[in-house]
Design brief:
The complex is a heterodimer. Chain A is α+β, with helices and mostly antiparallel strands. In chain A, 39% of the residues lie in helices and 32% in strands. Chain A folds into 2 domains: 111 residues, GOLD domain (Jelly Rolls, Sandwich), CATH 2.60.120.680; 68 residues. Chain A has 3 helices and 9 strands. In chain A, strands 1, 3, 4, 7 and 9 form a 5-stranded antiparallel beta sheet that branches. Chain A has a 4-stranded antiparallel beta sheet with strand order 2-8-5-6, with no helix packed on it. Chain A starts with a helix and ends with a helix. By secondary structure, chain B is of the alpha+beta class. Chain B has a domain of 141 residues: Jelly Rolls (Sandwich). Chain B has 4 helices and 8 strands; from the N terminus they run αββββββββααα. In chain B, the strands form 2 sheets. Chain B has a 4-stranded antiparallel beta sheet with strand order 1-8-3-6. Chain B has a 4-stranded antiparallel beta sheet with strand order 2-7-4-5, with no helix packed on it. Chains A and B meet through helix 1, strand 1, strand 2, strand 9 and helix 3 of A and helix 1, strand 1, strand 2, strand 8 and helix 3 of B. Chain B: This is GOLD domain-containing protein. Chain B: It is found in: Endomembrane system; Membrane. Chain B: InterPro entries: Emp24-like, GOLD_dom, GOLD_dom_sf. Chain B: Pfam families: EMP24_GP25L.
């Protein structure tokens, strides 16, 4: 009787208790994620609009969501540009290590106004469930299948892979940091020498100018 | 299908969402989560990654505007609280204190539903199930519990703490030795908790590294600015001195100084 695990999986497929926030009309909301190379990101989203008739947030069929992922370290190179329905899932894998900007824009929604009463925040309620890392592979397919010792160990293994990838990413960052420190150090030396040079030149100019002046004035 | 019904009542799932959001100056951003059961444990972690003096105002409000957590100018925070009311909980970040600095905040909100043993009648229920059925039922529940426990242990203040709740120790495969398998499960749970600690530490180091990087960058620009200012000042002073001395010895005052 394998039904229990399937039943659990069905219940957990919808991000019912995930985070949600409110967007006022077709405004873009962005999140920045620093991702190591080859990280898989899976997101489940759901956009609901405020309906005055039922005084609640409902799913309308013509509402869509435009999702973009850009690499901010590579001149905002767009990695993902996906137009989807009001509710769905998106997946992408980070090709390079660095900061990625994830933006969502609801489509076909009206602007919010000052006529919202108490208890209502804005026109679009956006639910987002983001899973980052190799464990997201398991979460995206079947959440209920972790009822086996072997599966638990596999889950531990993929989490370790996440840790390993983050370590490699930190090494790269530390190398960049070291370069930056060395650069700053070289800059200190350079500007000190420039300042000394300017000081010397100014001193020489002062003395020669005053000497010429006094000779002209017949005082020396 | 009493078993299915019981399992439906026992679904103890957990959800955790980790996001990084950039707050502009004078911006207030709120994130919401719904709590459906009383006694749900909610874990809230945030750390300012970049911007200004790396601090931010935050507040956590429950339904009926009940303030649960509140703080000003905090660099990072790690809290676990029990949600006693059902409804919408609001987690807000406030950057109104900055005039022009934009702040990047990395936060994680994890919700773990509690274990409600109310749907199980007393021991008669367990006796009615055959051992393989019972094993599979408990193993299925256990896995969800473990996931939630993992999330929570990594978020709990003071490091990993094992919750003092009912844990089933039956083997997950029929025929396996009960004591051996439970020892294995224990060690896997310990490994899982340690791994959560490791990943939490990594997050901490990433935040610190961001701060260090920002300090070094700011040092670099400061050096350039101050050098230019000093050079300008030096040249100006030299010129001023020369012209004042010339003024003393010029015109009618020639020879009288």
């Amino acid at each position: 009787m394998r039904r229990p695990s399937l039943f659990l999986a069905a219940v957990l497929a919808v991000p019912s208790q995930a985070l949600h926030f409110f967007i006022d009309g077709a405004v873009q909301k962005c999140f920045f994620e620093e991702l190591p190379k080859d990280t898989l990101v899976v997101g489940h989203y759901d956009a609901k609009v405020w309906d005055d008739a039922t005084k609640n947030y409902i799913s309308k069929p013509d509402v869509g969501v435009f999702i973009t992922v850009e690499e901010t370290f590579d001149n905002n190179h767009r990695v993902v540009a996906q137009r989807g329905a009001g509710s769905g899932k998106f997946t992408f894998s980070a090709a390079d290590s660095g900061e990625h900007r994830l933006c969502v824009v609801p489509q076909n929604v009206q602007q919010g106004g000052a006529w919202f009463g108490s208890g209502v925040h804005a026109s679009v309620k956006f639910t987002l469930d983001l899973a980052i890392g190799e464990t997201s592979k398991i979460e995206s397919t079947d959440k209920g299948k972790i009822d086996d010792l072997a599966q638990k160990v596999r889950d531990l293994n993929s989490r370790l892979q996440d840790v390993r990838r983050e370590q490699i990413f930190q090494r790269e960052r530390e190398a960049e940091f070291r370069d930056q420190s060395e650069h700053t150090n070289a800059r200190v030396v350079r500007w000190t020498l420039i300042q000394l040079a300017v000081l010397g030149i100014t001193c020489a100019w002062q003395l020669s100018h005053l000497r010429a002046f006094f000779i002209k004035q017949k005082l020396t | 299908m009493r078993i299915l019904a019981a399992i439906a009542g026992l679904v103890a799932y957990a959800s955790a969402t980790a996001l990084t959001y950039r707050l502009e100056a004078h911006e207030r951003a709120c994130f919401f989560t719904d709590v459906k059961d009383k006694g749900t444990k909610v874990a809230f972690y945030f750390a300012v990654q970049s911007g200004g003096s790396f601090d931010i105002d935050y507040s956590v409000t429950g339904p009926n505007e009940k303030v649960i957590l509140d703080g000003t100018k905090e660099r990072q925070g790690d809290f676990v609280f029990t949600a006693n009311d059902e409804g919408e909980y609001r987690f807000c970040f406030n950057n109104e204190m900055s005039t022009f600095a934009e702040k990047t905040v990395d936060f994680e909100i994890a919700v773990r539903a509690p274990f409600h043993p109310t749907t199980i009648p007393e021991t008669s229920f367990f006796e009615a199930l055959s051992p393989p059925q019972l094993q599979r039922w408990i193993a299925g529940y256990n896995s969800q519990y473990d996931r939630g426990l993992r999330e929570l242990e990594s978020n709990a203040v003071g490091g990993p703490q094992v919750e003092n709740e009912v844990r089933a120790q039956l083997p997950s495969k029929p025929g396996a030795h009960p004591e051996q398998t439970s020892v294995l499960e224990e060690s896997i749970l310990k490994l899982s908790a340690q791994l959560s600690t490791v990943s939490r530490n990594q997050k901490y180091f990433r935040t610190r590294e961001n701060r260090n990087f920002s300090t070094v960058k700011s040092t670099e620009t400061r050096i350039f600015n101050f050098s230019m200012m000093e050079v300008g000042l030096m040249v100006t002073m030299a010129g001023l001195q020369v012209f004042i001395v010339r003024f003393f010895f010029q015109g009618a005052r020639k020879g009288y100084v």
